[in-house]
Design goal:
Layout lengths: L13 H17 L1 E4 L3 E7 L4 E2 L9 E4 L5 E6 L3 E10 L5 E12 L4 H7 L4 H18 L4 H5 L3 H16 L4 E12 L2 H51 L2 H16 L5 E4 L9 E4 L2
Antiparallel strand pairs: 1-4, 2-3, 2-5, 6-7, 7-8, 9-10
Length: 277
């Protein structure tokens, strides 16, 4: 039996079709972009003027773009920045401040943000703004105010001043929180001691005020009783007393208890009542 050789013939134009298919695959992969949740894309037209700023950013999902163009993806949901900084109080003491900021880029201005600030806008814009505002605000207060009573006011002022600086910078500041304030140990100890003394003094004042109010109440109560007695004594004439005595005698006479009534034997001629009780 003779050996038979199977000869495979490449179809005419096959190489061309393969090349076309590969080019199509490359073209398709370069011409598509998928933007994830919480993201948006800035379109850069290589032959059309660069960054597109007069059109909305590309939203979430699948997009077709020319393969010679690029899409720069930004996270547009709220992000968190934790910043620790050393600032000076009004009397020149070092204060270590820990601040949290919530921010996000303005989606409708994403093209301008990319063109003028770039993807590192956090370091270029937001951090310097918060540091500047914090130094300005803290410099108005003493360490004692910062540590105790003015924490909320300082937090609000840092937010307001940072937001003012960021106005027109294509980013949105949602909130600034002062998480921690660290004072020099000696200053912190002195402030805590002073606050404790003030609290003790307030408690002492409260005790004194309470005692004074109780004494005043007792005085008013005693004066009221004395006045009532004076009025009662002034109204009790001899005839009224006799009448009251007679009424009491009649009531006792009608009671079931055993008694002896001697009429006219009491003081001022009132009945004298003798009984087993």
């Amino acid at each position: 039996m003779s050996n038979q050789q199977i000869e495979f013939k490449f179809p005419k134009g096959g190489a061309f079709l393969i090349i076309v298919a590969v080019l199509a695959l490359v073209f398709f992969s370069k011409a598509t972009v998928t933007i994830g949740s919480g993201e948006a894309g800035v379109l850069y037209k290589t032959f059309g003027g660069g960054v597109v700023t007069d059109e909305p950013a590309l939203g979430e999902g699948f997009h077709l773009v020319a393969p010679w163009n690029k899409v720069i993806v930004y996270e547009v949901r709220q992000q968190e920045l934790l910043e620790k900084m050393k600032v000076l109080s009004s009397n020149g003491l070092d204060i270590l401040l820990e601040v949290t900021a919530w921010y996000q880029p303005q989606t409708e201005q994403l093209g301008s943000l990319h063109q003028k600030k770039g993807q590192d806008y956090l370091d270029r814009v937001i951090k310097p703004s918060i540091r500047s505002a914090a130094r300005s605000v803290v410099g108005r207060y003493t360490p004692e105010q910062i540590y105790s009573s003015k924490r909320d006011a300082i937090q609000k002022e840092i937010f307001d001043e940072t937001k003012k600086i960021l106005d027109g910078q294509y980013v949105q500041l949602n909130e600034v929180l002062v998480r921690d304030v660290t004072l020099p140990p000696t200053i912190k100890t002195a402030i805590e001691k002073k606050l404790k003394q003030e609290q003790e003094f307030l408690e002492y004042e409260f005790t004194i005020q309470k005692a004074e109010k109780e004494a005043e109440r007792q005085k008013i109560d005693a004066e009221g009783k004395a006045t009532a007695n004076r009025i009662l004594n002034a109204s009790l004439t001899e005839n009224i007393l006799k009448e009251k005595g007679i009424q009491a005698t009649l009531e006792l006479a009608n009671s079931k208890n055993a008694k002896v009534i001697v009429v006219g034997s009491g003081k001022d001629g009132l009945p004298l009542i003798l009984g087993n009780n």
